[in-house]
Amino acid sequence: MPTVPMLSPINIDDRAIRLAPYNVAPIEFHNYWNVTGYASVVNNGHTVAVHIPKRSKLPSIKGGPLKNHYVFDSLHFHWGPDNKNGSEHHVNGTKFSMEAHIVHHSNQFQTLKEATGHKRGIAVVAMFLQASAPNPNPDLDPLIEALPKIKTAKEDTHLSAQAAFEWFRSQAQPSGYYTYIGSLLNPAAGKEVVWIVYPGAVPVSASQVEAFRNLHNIEKKLITNNCQGLCPARKMTVYYCPLQAGGTLD
Ligand SMILES: [Zn+2]
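That is the input. Now the predicted structure with zinc ion docked in place:
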């Protein structure tokens, strides 16, 4: 199984990107906005992770650089000590307040574990959140309200799966996105991933970001920073895929 050196996260520099060499298509989000049932939300000691029980119609993505459907595995968040240092990817040298990773595996495999290490086995959508809104973003509130219930590491709770995804719905069809072949981050570092990085940011309030910093790790200390530092610069190609305005798929 192919492994790659650590290639993520990176600073995406608009002066160094290339336009996508293929017909650019939007990333299609299937079954995200009409998903039914519950999602589990867990404090795993490093981050907040959202999973949904296996069912016949799991959310999936397709389009852009992805030749087939990639099935939802999990969603987790990164944040940092302050609102200017909370993302793993940087865009033109700028960091955001938070970064969410929506992790998918190719439908050629049954699980993320099976897909790990296979060429184009995994695709992650990176979505930034920025503490720029004066008021809490109501679409993120269901998740924020779940956080006090999982203050201690290894605790979990539930909320509706739809509520777990609603906060990024408005950003799901941007005017363009970046994509590159990079690697997974800890704990499976060095395994190939198709990264799809959305340049815009979901506006949230400072108090919403702060709610994540109140969570405890295994040592019962606050998780104030769970971002990995940038990889040393490598010669890798980041493509930009400009899009026409498109509709939101369900
Ligand atoms: Zn991550």
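Helices lie at 112-115, 141-146, 161-165, 206-213.
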